[in-house]
Queue: 4 jobs
Job 1
Amino acid sequence: MMSHPSPAAFLDQAAALLGPRGLTTDPERMAAWLTDWRGRYTGRALALASPASTDEVAALVKLCAAHRVPIVPQGGNSGMAGGATPDDTGTAIILSLRRMDAIRSLDATAGMAVCEAGVILQTLHEAAEAAGTRFPLTLGGKGSATIGGLVSTNAGGTQVLRHGTMRAQVLGLEAVLADGSVFDALTPLKKDNRGFDLKQLLIGSEGTLGIVTAATLRLLPAPVGRVTAWVGLGGIVDARSLLRRVERDMGEALEGFEVVPAHCLDAVLAHLPAARAPLQAAHAWNALIECVSASADSAALRDRLETSLAAALAEGLIEDAVIAANDRQAEAFWTLRDSISAAERAIGPAMQHDISVPVEKMPEFILAASPAIESAFPGTQAVAFGHLGDGNVHFHVLAPPGAVRGEWEESHGKAISAQVHDLVTQWGGSISAEHGIGQMKVAELARLHDPVALGLMHAVKRALDPLGLLNPGKLVTVPPAACT
């Protein structure tokens, strides 16, 4: 039988370990961290723990294991799948890594930085830029997302096309395991053949196998040239053709290729009164293209991209295009792209799906899935936008006018998501491209994922977290082992 020591005894020992800054049970101080960023999930917690070092995390995890207290790790609380929100039992602690926010070292010559889990992505960007380098991963929530959260969810963003997901940026890792032991693999080795690559097992595990406390991350030389273009297109198939053309013409300089349908652009323009459409006429689809080089200057990149787009225009592949005159205009283009989710949230309820299919199939998937969903659920509108270059779009289904937020998602939303996920699976894709599984997609993963892969995941979870205390109810659920 499972024994459960007194919560009061645990809290007393945790308070002695962490001090007044490191532990609170004050409902007002905890309230902001009990609801996820989307507002879909709200839970309760026994306490909010904020350790200041890896040693404190390790000691706290040992204490939790001794008292059978579940742990919900949390970074910036900006996740999209409810992966950092506790359940409603009030038995778990939230383990916040936000106080662990030091950049332990940054070596521009070696091209690496060692960051603690609580370092905010934008802070790393600024530190890298000050050293004449850059960290090649960015996303709309860079002002709140933390390194630990990005590692734990294997975050993507707008530069995956060239640089890959967070997995590709992590050179070394430090994490506290379920028994409180510290896995220290921060030293980067290009060649290491001592068996399993354990750091890769922890990356993307959403805090269910260990708690990331620090990471060694790769840095790249600062770009010498940057050019950004906004392109109007007649259709999503044309966007794929344009992607292939620009890939051929620009080579490794192509870093981002985002697609934005007219509905999304209109929503952003209504949401941001100061925003302006980049092109005079409206277009069914738009592409946001960014090219960056550490060797060619902006003028040279601009000439190459102008030549590529001119040829596309002459072929009738695109309808119009504008290249940003400066960084300020380029950032204005990106603000339009990064504001889509907020603009749609202001319109009303929506079911938001983070899906991927092979790049070559994506336009046809969108053209098939959108009318299928709208026909099955009258009054809805399906919109797709995002990272066409790496086969990942955000497939949102907007509720009919007048739908009540909260009620509609529970009544119709789950059926909509199930059908979207069925379609994605039929097209050989993934129901989670970059946001993770969290608690939002646990049941769908169990329903649709390969049983062999699920079995392996369950076996790993049981081996590394036999008590089932690390982020229970997220990603993969395994009953805790019986113990006394």
Job 2
Amino acid sequence: MVGSGPNALAAAITLARAGRRVVVREAEDTLGGGVRSADLTLPGFVHDVCSSIYPFVPGSPFFRSLPLAEHGLDLLHPPAPVAHPFDDGSAVLVERSLEETAAGLGDDAGAYRRLVGSVCAGWGDLEEGILGPLTRFPRHPLPLARFSLHALRAAAPLACKTFATERARALFAGCSAHSIAPLERKPTAAFGLILLSLAHLVGWPFPRGGSQRIADALASILRELGGRIVAGAPVESLAELAVPTVVCDVVPRELIRIAGPELPARYVRRLARFPHGPGAFKVDFALDGPIPWRAQECARAGTVHLGGTLAEIAASERGPSEGRHAERPFVLLAQHSLFDPSRAPADKHTAWAYCHVPNGSDFDMTDRIEAQIERFAPGFRDLIIGRSVMPPTALERRNRNLVGGDLNAGAVTLWRLLARPVLSASPYRTPAKGVYLCSASTPPGGGVHGMCGYLAARAALSDAL
């Protein structure tokens, strides 16, 4: 196993459960890939190095099959998963209850119930299709087809057609912007629909003590099954491993680097054309107190979307794909310490925030991110006692899979839903015998759900029969 991110550990656990001997090789000294924590600012402040909010941990059928709680994972659920403040001092909250959320949208209550409620009601039939390769015929084609009528559309026009009020449109835009793609591009609406539905079905939780606890729990399960994990052991070439089966939690560029000589030239050329999306510019804050939101209800939410109106969010998300940096970027912020005191010393707090920028950008967005927070929380800057700044290049240095800061391990387009990383009936198999790919560059893509690893391991086990 190459890598120790959640997909690699999911693949390793799946193989170990089937009785296979498994060894995981991790290049860094700390396990976890995109789920790691560290004291990035000041001693005693726990920050998540990459990902931080996890609707897909309870929302993943693979993770639900694991005794994660028995291995130390304690997921915390803020009272409200998401808040979206506005300049007038008000905010829209996504509550765990769909009905309560709809009621807060006034004239758009019915439209919200119909759009998001239909996905929630049919999630049992949709889950397999959403969290698997679209090249495989689903067991429930009709519900998936109905879902696709909206999901495969662009978020901005769908929001404008569906909702009459700016509040509902902005809420949908903020959730859709997790796609890290222009909101006029298909299928960004899928992100809004799925994330809003998961907020009602399972919440947007995070681990007590930091995201590292996810990796630690998965590693504990693997070791209990007899698997071995070796940290600080980079793989420079698959030839050095001398094993019959290798599952690689790497992006296409890295697969070419470590396995290029073993792959057909035509496949290598196809991998080399795999596009990456915009990058992330991330700032972690150590604070002298809680964020002073003008809309006080924001203090009930673990995640806060800072971007104002749909038009403003759409302009912000359009810029990175065109090589521009937004003056008022859409900022995704998590405030863990309000609900997890272990994240900071007594009476202190943390904030985790990022915005989207052109891939590989070295432009400093710190002031613009802080200005957006200050816009909705006057006095925020006065509370900063430490900060850690990670532009896309710094994110990539910490994790080679974050090419140019691309958190989704590949550009979000309709074509790349099908051809991820290449068009194939089994995207986890490579032409090299015994070599499999399980990173987020394979279906179902980004997010901490482990399904890429699980499906790749199932392909490997099938080939071994």
Job 3
Amino acid sequence: MQLAIDTSTDTASVALVQDNEVLAELTWRSGQNHTVELLPQLAHLLNQAKLNLQSISGIIVAKGPGSFNGLRVGISTAKGLAFSLGIPIVGISTLEVEAYQHAEIGLPICPIFNAGRGEIAAAMYQRQDNEWHQLATEHITTAEALCSQITTKTIFCGEFIPIIDSLLRKQLKEWALIPTAASGLRRASFLAELGLKQLKAGDYNNPATLQPIYLRRPPITQPKHR
């Protein structure tokens, strides 16, 4: 059985899967409360499935980009469990998870997160000939610059989409395809599906060196020297 953990943004999600079947899943609006909510929700998930931590044989964690606090909580919890249980761990890009749930449509998919300072974090993915491809790596840009690079119908997804919905539709018109809020909700079961492929291939991460994808350093000021 595998455990998937995603605390990258205000939306948090955990899932238990076995043999490609979702045993249990919880997705909720955590805001900035990942520290106090993740472990109780994980305990509730295990209780619902009538399982315990020792049943877990692998861990899949969303590694960002996302909020600094959320990623720190999710990845440190996943690494702690991997160390204590002696099981493999796999880190998956959160933008990839966001895009993957729309893979079957077959169009280019552009997941977007708010990066602050008027910028966004984005990437591009597409399923082609039944293979999942990353067309553009995770990067920082602006909504305007991103629109100028779109040349075909593209699915835009992510928690930040409602904020720039009108801009995307105005700039791209029929090229901008935007899922509804319900169909665009990022869920840990999709994270698990991506991670299972790596676990089955033996493509593990080292829990000691697995790091979040931040794209930008935290906004911490340096102390002034006297």
Job 4
Amino acid sequence: MATVKDLRERIRSLKNTQQITKAMKQVAAAKIRRAEMAQKQARPYAATLSEMLHDLIAAVGSVDHPFLKPGTQEAPSGVVVMTADKGLAGAFNSNVTRAAEIYVRGASSVTYYAVGNKARNFVRRLGVGEFAAWPLSAQPKIQVARELAAKVTEDFTSGKIRDIVLVSSRMVSMMQQRPETRALVPITAGDLGGGDAEDAGAGPRGAVEFSPSPEFVLSQLLPKYLEFTLFSAMLETDASFFAAQLLAMNNATENAGKLIDELTIKMNNARQAAITKELLEVVSGAEALSV
């Protein structure tokens, strides 16, 4: 049975841990507001870009751009695994890496691109050799997105990979973050959204003229689409991570409080038992002297 001193030390240790988890919870709550704000500010641009590309692909006859053509079938699949740089967020990072593992099972060969330290560690454990990696917390994120987009574009156009697939986290709500696997390249009109159902609900739109030609505008926008899609996924991963960390630290703080209450009861019982034992010894000694 644990002594009063042992229980007191465990309670002190749990209180210190509770202070840390409470501080991390407050930090995550502050950071998620900024991450959500950045994500919401990027949504109108992403929606407009997707709508414009959808209209352009539907309007032009043919465009000589690699993103609209199938890749080399003999080449491996290019998989971008995007996680956070840190842990202490429950199963957030492991859910993303598990989704990547599930996708890879159906692919004959894979070339990895890791974004985030946890994704880098995941790919390193697979023993695939050299691979490209970027930290998620690097600033500015748009520069990381440009470097990543340039790398995967170069590999795709040169025939080193046959497609570009992104495995990242999608923020459903503050309580739920879901891993998502998306095919980014080759691009089709269906991948961009804005189908007939949406057009029917949106009503008629004015005619738009593209200069010097729709084909030229489309060829310029396609690389920007890939770049901004990766940038938007980085912002969403950031927001999802802080939401998961907020929930994990809140649960840890509450669990620490429950353990402290349980150990406090045990400590009080042990202390009461020690006092009772001392009283019995004193009474027994007094009775022995009086005999």
